[in-house]
Amino acid sequence: MSDGRIKLLHHDVGFLARAAAREALALYRPLLAPLGLSHAEYTVLLALEDGRDHPVTDLAARIALPEQGVASALAGLDDRGLIRWGQLRTDPRRGLVSMTPSGVTLLPQLEAISEQVRRQLDA
């Protein structure tokens, strides 16, 4: 395969992946809107469902979002009282984050949204 065809193939695969991601996000928007959550906030809450404190950098890596995007989502969740911030004892500059009881109460709804989107994608 020539270099030109490989570049076209990479472009097509990238284009299709971005299009699929947009379509999937479009399924989440109307389901998350009544909860006032963005998809990034939803993803962060699901990643925190284990009840442990997570360093922000580890959380960003875990959900494959840039730290800045995670920080923005965390700020919105913090404003609504769904997460709490702490500090890492060994490095006070690195924040720890966990879900509050208010956040935990959303988990059944978040799991139902996840299941509904999976069903729609399987259809």
Describe it.
By secondary structure, the protein is α+β, with helices and mostly antiparallel strands. It has a single domain, classed as Winged helix-like DNA-binding domain superfamily/Winged helix DNA-binding domain (Arc Repressor Mutant, subunit A, Orthogonal Bundle), CATH 1.10.10. The protein has helices spanning 3-32, 39-47, 56-63, 67-79, 101-122; strands spanning 54-55, 83-88, 91-99. Strands 1-3-2 form a three-stranded antiparallel β-sheet. The longest helix has 30 residues, at 3-32. It starts with a helix and ends with a helix.
Brief synopsis:
The protein is of the alpha+beta class. Helix content is 67%, strand content 14%.
Q: How would you sum up the major sheet?
A: 3 strands, antiparallel
Helical proportion?
A: 55-70%
Number of DSSP helices?
A: 5
Find the CATH superfamily: Winged helix-like DNA-binding domain superfamily/Winged helix DNA-binding domain
CATH first level: which class?
Answer: Mainly Alpha
Principal-axes geometry comes out as: flat
Please, how many domains?
1
| Structural class by secondary-structure content | alpha+beta
Give the CA-CA distance, first to last residue: 36 Å
What is the level-2 CATH architecture name? Orthogonal Bundle
Strands ordered across the widest β-sheet = 1-3-2
**Binned strand content:** 5-15%
Mean pLDDT: 85
Radius of gyration: 18 Å
Q: Briefly note the CATH topology name.
A: Arc Repressor Mutant, subunit A
Order of helices and strands: HHEHHEEH
Q: Can you tell me the residue ranges where pLDDT is under 50 for at least 5 consecutive residues?
A: none
Secondary structure tally: strands: 3
